[in-house]
Amino acid sequence: MAGGQERILRGRIRSVQATKKITRAMELIAASRIVKAQQRVQAAVPYSEQITEVVRDLAAAGASSDSPLLAGRETIQNVCYVAITADRGLCGGYNASVLRAAEGEIKVDVQAGRGYTIVPVGRKAESYFRFRGYTLDKGFAGFSDAPAYANAKEIGQHVVELYASGAVDKVVLVYTRFISAGSQEVVLRPLVPLERSVVEGGDGKPADASADYEYEPDPTAILNTLLPRYVEARIYAALLNAAASEHAFRQRAMKSATDNAEELIKSLSRIMNRARQDAITTEIMEIVGGAEALSGS
Amino acid sequence: MSETAAMRVEVVSPERMLFSGEANQVITRTLGGGEIAFLAGHAPFLGALDACHTRIYQADGKVVDVAIHGGFVEVSGNKVSLLTDLAELGTEIDRARAMRAKEAAEERMRGEHDADAVASLSRAHARLAASGGLTGTPAGAH
């Protein structure tokens, strides 16, 4: 019956409107968080710049670098992937693109006969790889929105331990780099062993100036405590970038969801109005027809 | 020390930059080396920091107190960079909370001397000293 259809359409419109309210709210929340996340990325820059500088100065000053973090291994048999994703979905292709990049690398490794381990960061990474039967190492989750340095420290300690124990010969970070609110890209960055090019070479200071540093305690001890922190700082930067990207992706996804809902409401109300019109027309026709029949008899 | 030349001082923690500006003198504490003061024109220096109350004497006579819980200090080219694992400005510290933490740590120290208790006591001391809440001891005494 025509009236029934109209009621069904009305219900659908109401439900789409409710969804639209939710997606609009999520869009606004994500938009406000991007700014905050971006500020945190900026705030972390001085520390990571300076720690890089100190590591370089130390290496330039000839601190003996027998730390396992610096010494690369001859043959790489096991690679560890730290895949950084979100804890929640509803952010477009954000999780999928990180996971796809990590999975692709793993497949290449498997074909080349190398082993792999995955350290999933974020619930989505963990559930994705677990469902597909990959071997997982310890996972970290629950902080993808606003990661703290303590989270990076935890991951860093775990990864350094994995590397130092010989379980893996290389650690790669897979995360989404935040370039601007409009563009982000998935990147694979080797984390451990630290690249010599990063660590070595001066930073523009005269070579003799860096040679006569005073140390307390000795340079090797400083370097050995400094390197794990350097790794942590790198992970922290990656986490912050990932968080900012997540918010940007979510904002875009929710914006298009809101737009789609609007579109849907528009076309649904058009159909509903037509159905209503039809119902009225039929009703009038019936009445007129009935009156005609009565007067005719 | 009012006439000493100024140098650049930066205190950064992984999460933010706490202090950046000109200063006449910086006093901090290195691991195993005790307290150390840097004046302008100090020789290049690299050290690991202990949990301590660091004081930055600014050119206008003001003193900035910072509680530092481990990290590194680099001095080069008339610039002192304090790279900390965790740091708090003296003005931001909740003194009552730090006092409670100190008492709790002292309580634990009575039982057994584990490294954890020692570390938390020195952290509490650094906080209290930086916030000026360590009564009976002159500012800066550890």
The SS-based structural class of chain B is: alpha+beta
Number of domains of chain B: 2
Q: Which percent range describes the beta-strand content of chain B? A: over 45%
- Structural domain count of chain A: 1
State the distance separating the first and last CA atoms of chain B.
23 Å
Number of strands of chain B: 7
The major β-sheet of chain B equals: 5 strands, mixed, barrel
> What is the CATH domain class of the largest domain in chain B?
Mainly Beta
Lateral arrangement of strands in the main beta sheet of chain A: 2-1-3-4
Highest-level CATH class of chain A? Alpha Beta
Work out the helix count of chain A: 8
Please outline the major beta sheet of chain A. 4 strands, mixed
Proportion of residues in β-strands of chain A: 5-15%
Please list the strands of the largest sheet of chain B in the order they lie side by side.
1-2-4-5-6
DSSP E strands of chain A, number:
5
What value does the average pLDDT of chain B take? 82
Architecture per CATH nomenclature, i.e. the level-2 architecture of the largest domain in chain B: Sandwich
Tally of helical runs of chain B? 2
